[in-house]
Amino acid sequence: YFKQINLRMSAFPEIKSKHSLVAKHVTKEKWDKLSGITTKTSGFTLAKAIACAVEFDNQHCGIYAGDWDSYKDFADVFDPIIQEYHGISADAKHTSDMDFSKITGNVNPNAPVHSTRIRVGRSIDGFGLSPGITKEQRLGVEKLFSSACKKFPEDLAGEYYPLTGMDEKVRQQLVDDHFLFMSGDRNLTVAGMERDWPEGRGIFHNKEKTFLVWVNEEDQLRIISMEKGGDVLGVFKRLAKGISAVGDSVKAECGKDFCLDEKYGYVHSCPTNLGTGMRASVHIDLPGWTKDGVEKLQARCEELALQPRGTRGESGGQTGHTYDISNKHRLGYSEVQLVQTMIDGVNKLYEEDLALQKKQAEAPAAE
After folding, report:
1. Is 254 assigned a catalytic role?
2. DSSP sequence for 192-231
3. Is 119 a catalytic residue?
4. Which end of the chain is less packed: N or C, by CB atoms within 10 Å?
5. Catalytic annotation, pick one of 138, 222, 238, 330
6. 0.85 cut: is pTM over it?
7. In the annotation, is 270 catalytic?
8. What is the pLDDT of residues 279-330, one digit of tens each?
9. Alpha carbon distance 363, 228 (integer Å)
10. Pairing of strands 202-206, 322-327
11. Which residue in 29, 159, 314, 351 is the catalytic one?
12. Residue 309 is a catalytic residue
């Protein structure tokens, strides 16, 4: 009887996101080979991994990993998806490099940059990733972090605020600071990331609110460095220092390192974040480009390996010409390379924006 249920459960699912990478790479043949496998670290399965692509019709990628093992056990599915998404070859290796002394220059201090933010994700070896992590493992990650953060150097030192039993005043302050992450995201729910909510989740920030860590959201640890203005190099330095502080404390506490895969870099729950897991961004005013046309800005960013997004009312977004500009790549480039690309690209966009404004001022207004 049980065997029958098992067989029924592993019938090839209907994938609603027909244009997703999952639909392309999860074939009946691969499903039959892999659907019976359960991973060792957190008991994850291929069915759980592709739940979003099965449930929703709007996924581009559509797959998550429940632990480091998922990438290995379901490699027949993950490998081609990762190669296609990131544009890497099958035998590519990933190299990490956080050495900020290799960065040349910085964003032009005259550029109208409102704020700078760089984030990465990190996962501790031996614990599941958010979609698959067990309740005990999630609490274990939180316990490791909450004792690790007590040992941070002075400029990074601060307070860890667990979501469970959070004081209303603290909660409101975190909301006002745009630091709080919420439950209720349908993707994260279907992917299994909101089980046992809000237990084991929390937010750390230093006194200056320039160094943050989100614990057990989409990644075990999401480490964020940010500040007003355009000192990208300074923000990257603080990030590098912060990552070391977290890693060293965790290692001292439990002897475990961050999951670092020689092929895929730092392990994240979402394969789109593999490699550096890094998004380095600035909010900058580009009135010249706005007037020239957002499509042209998008095309130019593509050439510069950047990604533009509109900002929603934060830091001057109401002006209608503030953009969030970030590095496009994650995997196949080191952190130093991506930050350098972002600095150089933002300077270029600013220089071109001034030229466009000048040209627009000189051009006779069209009647």
Report:
1. no
2. TTTTTTTTT-EEEEETTS-EEEEESSSSSEEEEEEEESS-
3. yes
4. C
5. 222
6. yes
7. yes
8. 999 999 999 999 999 899 999 999 999 999 987 644 334 458 999 999 999 9
9. 34
10. unpaired
11. 314
12. yes
